[in-house]
Amino acid sequence: MHGLMMNTPLLISSIMRFADLNYPDREIVSVTADNPNHRYTYRDAFARTRQLANALNKLGVKQGDRIGTLAWNDYRHFELYYAVSGSGMVCHTINPRLYPEQVTYIINHAQDRFLFVDLLVMPLIEKLWPALAGVEGVVVMTDEAHMPASEIPNVMCYETLLASESDQFDWPEFDENTASALCYTSGTTGNPKGVLYSHRSAVLHAYAGCLPDVLAFSGQDCVLLVVPMFHVNGWGVPYSSPMVGAKMVMPGPKMADGEALCALINRESVSIASGVPTIWLALLSYLEQSGATIPSVNRVSVGGAACPRSIIETFDRKYNVSVHQGWGMTETSPLGTIFKIKPAMGELTQDQQYDLRAKQGCGVFGIEMRITDENDQPLPWDGVAFGALKVRGPWVASEYYKLEDGDNPLDADGWFDTGDVATIDPHGVMTITDRSKDVIKSGGEWISSIELENTAVGHPGVVEAAVIGREHPKWTERPLLIVVTKEQQAVSKDELLAWFDGRVASWWKPDDVAFVEALPHTATGKIDKLSLRKQFADYKFP
Ligand code: AMP
Question: CATH for 8-198?
Fold first, then answer.
């Protein structure tokens, strides 16, 4: 027997309609290449979104067509999120920091009909244009006054396109399983793979994001969106914020600039911010140098890479900001797990809380997780056993978009193998020990590079650290620590190695230290271990 409730489809346009009616005066503040302080309201945003939907219609795009964006976090990108998906097309966000060949591959593989491009990304598109045969035109996300000269035949100006359109538009209704957005994984090996989100997955994921023990957004919040909108829908923040009527602040191209972020936070009274650990390292380092503070901020959500305990502790002790670490990936929309304190954990000392925050957290309702051994058998949640982390749920990818080799990412039981290796403790707290390809295997036992990196970064003289396994004649592999140290603080190799004594099992201690000026990062801000392994390919332990 079916229930007798309305079968209203979960559509992204419904978020917009709700926010338009309920929070029309709530502000959206952006930094863009053409305006360092753009401000308007949800009412203005959604009126322009309707104009944009009309403009898209005139361009002749149809439901299901892919529209590419190469843009930073700002109001025009926000309008595209809603106009493209709301009209039934697919908003294909592209990371402009990927290698140019990857950007070309992604645009051609997705068969994007039009590209909406930030002013600052236009030089890249000019260069790639001869290889983008299927793209019919480029819309530069700026006004007439800032339009660049271009060799591309069909270049349009975003503001001019909107100016002549009516702000009346009836959002179509369709099946909630219709594709809404497309995002390619960074693809450190092989070509990037497309993850195709649906309206249903996006709306359910955004609901989950608002939950008190998840991102905990409320209408009282002012949310700083530092996590890029070109990656995994900006963690769903552009959907969750309008759901609850939170004020939004978007830093545009100033994402990794500690000084600019600090100024924006204080000017707009930001209460909650989300981003990858490297962003918070940049902010903390600016705060330390300048003596500035961020009194309005009470929470920072961090994910995308392991957050060193030292970041968590500094935020709390010095700035009264609690750090909530989460884990997820492009294929999981991305919210999978997040920091949570449960009553069953009993009273926790401050140090125990920091330890807990340095782990990847507990499952969010909607995501089931498990760890399995090499025979695909589930392992116990005892905090000791570690194995392949697998997940399933309504916002987890079931397959990749148009994957030529037809690889099925699901195991025989329908679980998605994340490629991460993890433990889960009896409270359900998951800890990532490594990406499966980064695990260091020493004498048949696994060593967690993440734990070694977190320990190294806890040393007061270390800015950033990476640990990779290198060949060893006796143990197969041993850990090599690669560090960037603070300029003003000389740290010796012996001092760094002694730092691990008593902090990790003695046989985990790295065998050697290499000092470098900077570590390579991937386009999504993670330490690029593939490059490091190439860089240290000929390395031999002393
Ligand atoms: P991406 O699909 O580019 O967002 O990358 C997802 C991967 O980032 C995951 O599979 C993890 O390896 C890593 N990751 C994400 N969040 C965390 C975290 N909190 N701690 C450790 N690794 C993380």
Answer: 3.40.50.12780
Pick the atom of ligand 1 nearest to 419's CA.
Answer: 10
Q: Is 185 a catalytic residue?
A: yes
Residue with tokens 């987890």: 396
Q: Which architecture does CATH list for 438-535?
A: 2-Layer Sandwich (3.30)
Can 8-198 and 438-535 be said to share one CATH topology?
Answer: no
Q: Provide CB contacts within 8 A for 416, sequence distance 6+.
A: 331, 332, 390, 391, 392, 396, 397, 398, 409, 410
In terms of DSSP H, where are the helices of 269-409?
277-290, 309-319, 350-357
Q: What is the pLDDT of residues 68-93, one digit of tens each?
A: 999 999 999 999 999 999 999 999 99
Alpha helix locations (H) across 198-308? 199-210, 237-244, 258-268, 277-290
pLDDT tens digits, one per residue of 374-388: 899 999 999 999 999
Q: Residue ranges of the domains in the chain?
A: 8-198, 438-535
pLDDT of residue 356: 97
Ligand 1 and 186: CB distance under 6 A: yes
* 528: its two tokens: 């690029």
Q: How many helices (H) and strands (E) does the chain have?
A: 15, 25
Q: pLDDT, tens digit, for every residue of 497-525? A: 999 999 988 899 999 999 999 999 888 77
Compute CA 275 distance to the chain's CA centroid, rounded to the nearest angstrom: 7
Angle between helical axes of 277-290 and 258-268 (0-180°, round to 10): 80
**Is residue 329 lining ligand 1, measured as CB closer than 6 Å?**
yes
Query: pLDDT, tens digit, for every residue of 436-472?
Result: 888 888 887 888 898 899 999 999 999 899 999 999 8
> What is the residue with the minimal CA distance to atom 23 of ligand 1?
305
Cα separation, 250 vs 253, whole angstroms: 9
Q: What is the DSSP secondary structure assignment for residue 25, as one 8-state letter?
A: T
**Mean pLDDT, rounded, of the chain:** 94
**Whole-number Å distance between alpha carbons of 181 and 14:** 16
Strands 430-435 and 462-472: unpaired
Percent of residues in the chain assigned helix, strand, coil, to nearest 5: 30, 25, 40
Rg (CA), the chain: 23
Q: CB neighbours (10 Å) of residue 9?
A: 16
331 an active-site residue? yes
Residue 436, pLDDT score: 82
Q: Is 360 in the pocket of ligand 1 (CB under 6 A)?
A: yes
Question: Is there a contact between 361 and 327 (Cβ–Cβ < 8 Å)?
Answer: yes
